[in-house]
Amino acid sequence: MFGLKRSKKILVVDDEKETLVLLTKILERANYEVISTSTGQEAVGLAKKQQPSLIILDVVLPDIDGGEVASILSKDSSTANIPIVFLTGVIRKDEEAEGLKTGKRYVIAKPVVVEDLLRIMDQALSG
User: Fold this and answer.
1) Distance (Å, rounded) from C-alpha 54 to C-alpha 63?
2) Which domains does the chain have, with CATH numbers?
3) What is the spatial distance between Cα 126 and Cα 10, in angstroms, rounded to a whole number?
4) Parallel, antiparallel, or unpaired: how do β-strands 9-13 and 33-37 relate?
5) Where are the alpha helices (DSSP H) in the chain?
6) pLDDT tens digit string along 66-117?
7) Which of 1, 16, 78, 125 is the most exposed place for a label (fewest CB within 10 A)?
8) What is the pTM of this model?
9) Residue 92: which residues within 8 A CB-CB, separation 6 or more?
10) d(C-alpha 73, C-alpha 70), whole Å
11) What is the pLDDT of residues 19-50, one digit of tens each?
12) DSSP SS3 for 26
């Protein structure tokens, strides 16, 4: 399937409990260590403390939005280089490719296709 060595830590941020549970199961089955939260503020704290290899970040969150979380993290030298995969229902699947990669930021539309998510994660983690 995708890359064999999967012991990297992934921070998943989404305010929908079902999405958090689903992503956690998918990533744990793929041998990732998963930490998760449903708020942007907590995501910032966890990113600084846990230093994940990658962040899967919902755009719409109850406190501060995913774009602001990414902005805060990009200004801190300890988190500035962590790749981010934005997960959003704001764009359609057919719009996904247009905004797929900008620097260390990737975009994937909800609902998530497991193979697409793992492929994008592999790209983000390798480059």
Assistant:
1) 21
2) 9-126 (3.40.50.2300)
3) 14
4) parallel
5) 17-29, 40-50, 66-74, 114-126
6) 999 999 999 999 999 999 999 887 655 554 444 444 556 888 888 888 998 9
7) 1
8) 0.87
9) 109
10) 5
11) 999 999 999 999 999 999 999 999 999 999 99
12) helix
Residues written for the chain? 127
Q: Which amino acid is at 20?
A: L
Question: What value, to the nearest 5°, has the Cα angle with vertex 80 and ends 114 and 97?
Answer: 35
Q: What is 104-116 written as a DSSP string?
A: TEEEEESSPPHHH
Question: In angstroms, how far apart are the furthest CA atoms of the chain?
Answer: 37
User: Hey, what long-range contacts does 92-96 have (CB within 8 A, 24 or more apart)?
Assistant: none
Q: Which structure tokens are listed for 50?
A: 């846990």
Tracing tokens 């988190």 back to the chain, one arrives at 79
